[in-house]
Design brief:
alpha/beta; homodimer; 16% strand; 378 residues; Aspartate Aminotransferase, domain 1; seven-stranded mixed sheet; Aspartate Aminotransferase, domain 2; 13 helices
Chain lengths: 378, 378
């Protein structure tokens, strides 16, 4: 059965994007590819809302976050990691792997970091090399109030690194206006492109620091890539087919308008939360309008969540994500960004209703779908 | 105009492989993708001719070579780099970036390393951590006699790392039988898949060394990936669409037979060299049966090579590579592996003849094509 991906990465690929990925390959040193690359880098800058450079990498988002450590952190440097979930925890491990003195500001999984507290831990400090923060914690659905954090931490000595892997293009993110230093994202989330590309916006200040220090690195080196990109090239053979696919996806995003897409995510998130409530299920992600990118739902007592997830996939072709870490088997996660439409979510909610009816957990059909429609339309 | 890639990476993508890259995405944690991943890892082991583990990376081949340094080299470790071209030189730079004490054994660009000399520099030494060697130097077309080198260096303390990025699947390479430790390759060469995936075969000995040392690393860490792969997973979101494409390509290679494909490359290389000679052009790559993967040709005096290359691309849709480093503008390079067929090469040679006729450099049409046919058939 064809699968409908409602997962927070990979997300569904629009047919035109998939077709671009399957077109005969351009050579990466050809003038044709150079034009694609330059268009993609310009398009990324517009999605990032920045005039700074964006490093294009052929890698996972994780390796792109790693590039921030490789370029900025030497052993013994102090790094502040703000964590409220699986990805926040991953960056703690990564910082430790780079020999950093790690200082962790932890929030319970599923919580939104307290913006004033986070800002206070960054502002005015002279002993921090890097502070890293997850914008959208994909493992829980909690989106941090990055705008307030950045405003409160404007006066800082450290480089502020933001993991925006699942938020870029799905949530408000004003890289230049908010004064962010390094913002990392990936192709397979709101940008509707298959996984394999990642991006790092690098401010002039961050670039200068990277030139002067960091760890041993080669492919992850920002300067090497930025020097090549300034000549319309990549330093190594890139994932050409994915770059060409991203080119099409960025044009679609541009045609829609970034604000329209972000507002659609907000409305779809509202709808999903309304459906969850109407079905008597418990939200794991914050019940907040800014947290509609990923909705996490606690499987009710007596329901074998992983069995339901399997039936959703096998009987309905609907793929939702499970929990990560301690949440394996305890939650499901539904995305509402990228190419996911309200109709896709209706299909997913209906499939869930059918399975919950069969499990005897709910008695009335259609209430979730109805609540979604009202929440979305509101 | 649709482009016929005769370049040594990327190489042309067979339609069935391209179609797989454009199919609806599988989720990387789904049982369907797990089956694909396990098939791909098994298929890679067969192409590598090894029972050891193969690390699958979402990266360029360069980053995969880097992973050998990141996993095996600590600052101050002594590394022997054998270089006879652009890629050999790149690994010298990479070794230096990792703080290694670099010892370089250099050969002129275009030469094949002397197997006895290389083996003697490795065998019996106790002060070397790593020796790195390029199997097929894509920048010049020279293929090293890896079998003889490996046999002569069997008795070694260091880890022998082989850059087989453009040779795996195109030249004889017996990873286990020749006792190689670490062999790196990529998707976009003989494996007929778009760029973005790279592979590192890791022997038990190399894996043990990596566990005990190396540099700061996370995404490049072999152990992290091998532990995930043992569970049918990848540690991070992989380039799913490319893995599915590689799955189809590996099945095609298996159906053909590896030996048949390697022999076809040998015959195509013979044909190309015969054509070059018949056209009165000078070979840059060695005139040797083992060096048919990439044929490098010196542009004759009075011919503006880059202008001809542009005309080949714009007027004939034929893409050949130019020179790298000091060879920019001085040579052209034609590949004869992956999905490239004898017919493709005939088309490329004919286009070159047309342009050399127009430039007044040759007078008789068809001699190159005729020589190719005889060389290939021989």
């Amino acid at each position: 059965m064809a699968a409908l991906l409602l997962t927070p990465g990979p997300t569904p690929i629009p047919p035109a994007v998939a077709a671009a990925a399957a077109a005969p390959l351009l050579h990466h040193r050809s003038p044709e590819f150079r034009a694609v690359l330059e268009r993609v880098l310009d398009g990324l800058r517009r999605v990032y809302r920045t005039d700074d450079e964006v490093v294009l990498m052929t890698s996972s988002g994780t390796a792109a976050v790693e590039s921030a450590f490789a370029n900025l952190v030497a052993p013994g440097d102090r790094v502040l990691c703000v964590s409220a979930g699986n990805f926040g925890d991953r960056w703690v491990t990564l910082a430790a792997a780079y020999g950093a003195e790690v200082e962790t500001l932890r929030y319970p999984w599923g919580a939104r970091p307290d913006p004033a507290e986070v800002a206070a831990r960054i502002a005015g400090r002279t002993d921090l090399a890097v502070a890293i923060l997850v914008h959208s914690e994909t493992s829980t659905g909690a989106v941090a109030d990055l705008r307030t954090i950045a405003a409160g931490a404007r006066d800082r000595g450290c480089i502020l690194v933001v993991d925006a892997i699942s938020s870029l293009g799905a949530a408000p993110l004003e890289t230049s206006a908010w004064g962010l230093d390094v913002v990392v994202s990936g192709s397979q989330k709101a940008l509707m492109t298959p996984p394999g590309l990642a991006f790092v916006q690098v401010s002039a200040r961050a670039r200068e620091r990277a030139r002067a220090g960091g760890a041993a690195r080669y492919a992850l080196d920002w300067e090497r890539t930025l020097v090549a990109q300034a000549k319309g090239q990549t330093p190594f053979t890139p994932a050409i087919s994915l770059v060409c696919a991203l080119d099409v996806a960025l044009a679609m995003i541009e045609a829609d308008g970034l604000e329209v897409r972000i507002e659609r995510t907000r409305r779809m998130g509202r709808g999903v939360r309304a459906a969850v409530r109407a079905l008597g299920l418990e939200l794991y992600s914050p019940d907040h309008d800014d947290c509609g990118l990923v909705t996490a739902v606690v499987w009710p007592q007596g329901v074998d969540g992983e069995a339901v997830r399997r039936r959703l996939r096998e009987q309905h072709g609907v793929v939702v994500a499970g929990g990560q870490g301690d949440l394996v088997g305890r939650i499901l996660r539904v995305a509402a960004f990228g190419a996911i439409t309200p109709g896709d979510l209706v299909q997913g909610i209906a499939a869930l209703e059918i399975e919950l009816l069969a499990a005897g957990h709910i008695v009335e059909a259609g209430v979730g779908v109805g609540a979604f429609e009202r929440g979305y339309a509101r």
